[in-house]
Input
Amino acid sequence: MEEKTKAIIIGGGPAGLTAAYELATRTNITPLVIEKSGVLGGISRTVFYKGNRMDVGGHRFFSKSDRVMKWWLNILPIQKLEEKTLISPTLLPEGYSRESAPDPEQTDEVMLLRRRRSRIYCFRKFFDYPISLSLGTMANLGFSRTVKIGLSYLKSVFFPIKNETKLEEFFINRFGRELYLTFFKSYTEKVWGTPCSEISASWGAQRVKGLSVWKSLVHILKKIIPAKKDISAKGTETSLIEQFLYPKFGPGQMWEKVAQLVCENGGEILLNHEVVGIYTEHNRVTGIRVTDTKTGNSKIIKGDFYFSTMPVKDLIRGLEPKAPENVQEISEGLVYRDFFTVGLLLEELKIKPESKTAGNLINDTWIYIQEPDVDVGRLQVFNNWSPYMVSDPGKVWIGLEYFCFENEGIWNKTDEELIQYAKEEISKIGIIEKQKVLDGCVIRMPKTYPAYFGTYSRFGEIRSFLDQFENLFLVGRNGMHRYNNQDHSMLSAMVAVDNILEGKRDKSAIWEVNTEQEYHESRKE
Output
């Protein structure tokens, strides 16, 4: 490749910045990142508000991919670990040692090792997450409901729904109808605004995968036997992971550091620039038109390779010449679920820890709100993600997450109205006392969740059309219209750069990242 080969990367989230870093450090291709907003990190950004930091959505830095784990720890080294904590030497950067590991009290560029605890709040009671038929769960449910759930689960084991295609069928086959109706249906429909009977089972295949009641029970039994904790935890379902890595100041710290390294290695980043046109000729992208969102000025930028993390619907709309009618039709039918977080600073929570020796604050990182009489879907306790996220350790800093569509009334409420609404809801279900709220803010994130309904069943036609452009690579959550976690978005970008270095034109390896292929194979069996 020529000395001045350039790659244009649309979007400065995890996938876009990973692609830029990989290009800047592994190739002679100069990356140029085009970011529509004024901040980097996408939904993995850290929002700063009056000395307090918010994680938009909650981002555990955990992956079953050694490549991703090592990549993270090469950017931000892990803090000094206890001897009982295991970590493979292959994941650590060269020269790392336990003795010289950074102390979070002394340095800012460090990864913390955090304990994860998540619970479900339902019937004004707490249940373990993921839900399992443990003694605590049975006590909260009561004898009658527990028996119904147990019988329903046995029925799903011996008489499963054949050829499951919908998310409802996916859940029933793994947990039984009664457990599905109690703990999965209302929350999932709160998140997506659509009945589970209309959502593709592919969502469950990617997000729940191998989790089941049986695996949850086995996990509980394993916890009885003391063992050293291995950070990688490869044999554990992702939903059951009990510890994870986390940057001292939240996920945005990782991506701000990556952006710095990209620029130090010759890359360039343009903030507040929106891609409004993508020009193609035959089977190649030839250039893009970008508009400065502050000045309104526009220009055409040309490169040799193009990475897109922008929503597929926006990409198709911007193509010149236009995409075929069937591709446009499918693209316009793709659905996205939007999201906003209400941050509340409090003197204290009304709910308290089970143990009196645990202090005054529960140790949950997040809580799933299953109560049907409120709209809030999940509650984050930022103190427990990292104590450095809160300016005053004597205060409690929480985030209340809401899921909606941009055209819904709740999205268009003012920040003040949403803060008051959130206070009323969370007080109503007994988690806080309204008078203990000291301050609040609102963060809106459009197109957070690419949906598995609408015209998604025909997405393969869009993929086939776009894959024919040999120098265009779709990566990341919105770029692939796939509900990827942060690590999967990163892997898609890494594999795309691998393709360029190896001269591959077949893009199937990129699409196989976070694939539900194992799920489809198990269905055939």
User: Anything to note?
Assistant: The CA atoms of residues 136 and 325 lie 55 Å apart. The chain has a mean pLDDT of 89. The chain has three domains: 6-43+254-334+453-522, 126-208, 336-450. The domain at 6-43+254-334+453-522 is CATH 3.50.50.60 (FAD/NAD(P)-binding domain).
